[in-house]
Amino acid sequence: MKQYIKWDISSHKFLLGVGSGVIILLLCALNLGIHSAQDLKEIIAQQFNHQQLILARQASQEIENSFNALIEELLILKYSQREPSPDLLQMIFQRAHRLGARGLLVLNQDKKVIYKIGEPTLTKLTPLDPNNLAVHLSKSWVYISEPLRKKIIVLFIDPYLLVQRHVARIRSGKTGYAWVIDENGYFIYHPIKSFIGQNAFKVRQEKAPDFYFKKINKIQRQEMLQGKEGIGEYISLWHRDVKGYVKKFVAYTPIHIPYTSHIWSVAVCVPEKEVNAVIHYLYLKQFFIQGSLILALIGLGIFALSLERGFRETLRQEVERKTEVLKKSEEKYRLLIESADDLILTLDMFGNIISFNQATASFFKKKPALLHGQPFNVIMQWPPNTIIDCLNQLYTTKQSIVKEHIVKINGKPHWLNTKLMPLYLGEEIKEILCIARDITKEKLVQEQLSNAEKMASLGTLAAGVAHEINNPLGIIIGFGELLLENTPRETQAYQDIKLILKHALHCKSIVQNLLNFARPTEDLSKAIDINEAIKEVINVVRHTLEINNIQMKIEFASSLPLVQGDKKQLQQVFLNLIINAMDAMPDGGELSITTRLDEQQAIEVLFQDTGCGIKEEDLGKIFDPFFTTKPEGRGTGLGLSISYSIISKHNGRIRCESEENKGATFIIDLPPIGGQYAR
């Protein structure tokens, strides 16, 4: 439930974050739109002014073309082969009239009018060139003179009409217009009729004496009157019929008058608000498109978010389901590993323990924290380089390694069968899996079987040897006793015969033991109280133990179940173990005899001494016939072998745990009679 609450909280936080992100995105888009609108305004204003400049250039070119057309009309007369007739002059004037001509004069050498068309005037006429075509400019007129066979033809042109037909039709935006000034700053054309023929600087100032037309005056004086081309902006107090502060964009270009160095200038202007209206329209269009895109993106984002949320929910459920399945699977395998009796460990590439099951910690009787990270060879009590050699072999051959070895836990030896196997991640070995099994019981069974086979073979051999030796021994002992009776005691011969009989009887004892070892047990069906059987043996040897300065410590379990078998044979085993303990403690010591029930409810009898102990290399041979560690003449090497045989016949087992100079413990396990317990 807590996970679901956390999930909902995280989902709300995520949605809040997305909403905040969308708002920030919209604000950024708005800010970007404002800045882009300003940039767009500047760009469109620049483009609009350049469009006006194109209009101005077109008008300038058309005016120059009109000048050239008028000049060509006069050149037609010059290159004709005959005197110009009135009809020809009339035809030329009619064509020139459409271009702004208002009169045509034919003058003689004395500059007297000999022919006249239209309404020309000779007032303040500039001296005419009698040899070349010339273009003359005045404030109100433009006239072109062409010498022709001792005559001069003069064509009078109204500059207003010349430029008006080209610039009056110019419309920049809705209300924008064009105007033309000459090189002295006089208006040749302007939509306001009263401005025509007036000085542009003065007429503006007269119309608005309280306003200083700084920018337009600067543009006219420094740019237009200098024959330059360009664009700009200025403030005016009117535009056509509109009065008030009007910001205008202006583009201008020069008009070059043919056959002269004179320059006029044509300008095209438009109010800024008309450009802004276009910009506003474009901006609204752009904003609508951007807004539509943003709304579409938001819609898509919300749709994607809903899909993603649904997908996340489905994914979460699937992950939870898979996690639960994986958890159950891991729990299953963990239980399998933890419930296994075998020791299961994983090692890293350096031979250190990474993980292990509970059986491992229980076997080594260590806390899990003390095992983790420990070197494997230390835990397994291997020589230092053994695990390194095994790991090198694993990485080289990629094959498992099996070893059988002994591990001592609290001084008690245990046999382990250890198998090392590589664990792969892809094609590389990532870890080493170790599975070790306690085979101590199997080893003991194998040892018992081996000893049983030895005993069976020895029994067969002993029976034959005993029968072969018994007959000559009987003769030796019989004749020895006869000789001993007939020999005086004080003689040396008597002592020699007595020594012979002593050793012969010792040989007879050995042969008898061999026969007892080989002879089948006659009766193993009697119920025996183990505690009572041991007490009877102790009563026999108590005095001997005290003489040898050996302390007796007895700990008998009460209510032990009875054992089925031969009491005398078992007492022979107990007596043999007590005698061996005395021999192991020549300077005295302590002998502990304990009876108890083990975990399998078998009767366990322990004989523990504090003597010299048994060497590790001799532990596996102590039950072999004729093996002894006692000095020569002190033992036959048959005591433990016969004891092993007797215990085996009683379906029990006998084993020894010992370390050199730390004493020895012989442990006898005997099965009880079901339901019968000693009182």
From TrEMBL:
Its EC number is 2.7.13.3. Residues 464-674 form the Histidine kinase domain. CDD domains: HisKA (cd00082), PAS (cd00130), PDC2_MCP_like (cd12912). It comes from the Bacteria. It catalyses: ATP + protein L-histidine = ADP + protein N-phospho-L-histidine. Pfam families: HATPase_c, HisKA, PAS_4. Coiled coil: none annotated. The chain crosses the membrane at residues 12-34, 287-307. It is an enzyme of class 2 (transferase). GO terms for cellular component: plasma membrane. The keyword Transmembrane applies. GO terms for molecular function: ATP binding; phosphorelay sensor kinase activity. Keywords: ATP-binding, Kinase, Membrane, Nucleotide-binding, Phosphoprotein, Transferase, Transmembrane, Transmembrane helix, Two-component regulatory system. Residues 329-374 form the PAS domain. PANTHER family: C4-DICARBOXYLATE TRANSPORT SENSOR PROTEIN DCTB, SENSOR HISTIDINE KINASE. NCBIfam families: sensory_box. This is histidine kinase. It comes from Desulfofervidus auxilii.
